[in-house]
Amino acid sequence: MSRITASKFKEGRVYASLNGYRSDDFNSYLFLSEDYGSTWTAIAKDLPSEPVNVIKEDPKSENIIYVGTDGGLYVSFNKGRSFMMWNAGLAKSVPVHDIAIQERENEIVLGTHGRSIYIAKLDDIQKRAR
Q: In the sheet that 65-69 helps form, which strands lie side by side, from edge to edge?
């Protein structure tokens, strides 16, 4: 297991990201539960086959989620039904191992492997979701 993240928008909603490093399985695994983990739905079927390290919800929109993988950062505007790569200012194929959201500054902070940290404003992403 890589992470379990509870929603701040809806009680009972939880995300789980998994990686199979220890089993030489490098596919992407990301799941959503709306019922406290009783049932799970696979999301992010369009992510590339690479380990998923972390998932975070946007602080202002429950539909936006951010996913860090071994190949970079991905953004969904529809709670994980589809994703697009975030490549504005972020080096290509940088493993993202942690994500923090600074709500006061409305910034995303990424902990990467080999590239230190990356900080970006979330304003443009949030406007796109409206």
A: 52-57, 65-69, 72-76, 84-86
Average the pLDDT over each of 20-24, 37-41, 43-47 and give the range with the smallest value.
20-24
Taking only the tens place, the pLDDT of each residue in 92-110 is 789 999 999 999 999 999 9
Q: How confident is the model over 73-89, as pLDDT tens digits?
A: 999 999 999 999 998 77
What are the boundaries of each domain within the chain?
A: 3-128
Per the CB < 8 A criterion, the answer to whether 100 and 109 are in contact is yes
Torsion angle in degrees (nearest 10) through CA of 59, 96, 90, 44:
-70
CATH number of 3-128: 2.130.10.10
Please give the model's pTM, rounded to 2 decimal places.
Answer: 0.91
